[in-house]
Write a structure and sequence with these properties.
The chain is of the alpha/beta class. The chain has seven helices and seven strands; from the N terminus they run αβαβαβαβααβαββ. A seven-stranded parallel beta sheet has the order 2-3-1-4-5-6-7, with helices on both faces.
Length: 170
Amino acid sequence: VVDNTLETLQNLARYHRDQLSIPVIGITGTNGKTTSKELIYSVLKSEINIYATKGNLNNHIGVPLSILEVNNKHSIAIIEMGANHKNEINFLCGIAKPTHGIITNIGSAHLEGFKSIEGVIQTKNELYKFIKFQNGLLFVNNDDNLLLNLANNIKKITYGKTSKSNISIS
């Protein structure tokens, strides 16, 4: 018996994550989170035992449920994180504790919760800030100036169409 089942679920997931010593890739973005997660999962699953968020369980309930499915047989986890209001990505990072991060893109969605595109940018950037604080690693689209600017002074691997990218996909 608990006072608040949601808080208990989230606290259990935080505790469980603290027991895991594996890399966690956090993925967020206005669009393409689930597709990017599935593509990364498809590439890595042939080489390692990997966990990835099921479907798009990427909110304050889905992220804790996902973290609780990760076990010590997994070498890495990919956790999708969605948001429709300010500070939500920061909250989800506090549960998933990603060591690596990807923002697929930033656009004007869920403006009723974010109030402005600046609110969307600030919230998505919470992933980058968390990764920086953890001394983690970002994967950044080198063709997206907004993402590059947000990732300034954070350890990163860039990808994109130009030869300036660490990984060129031209």
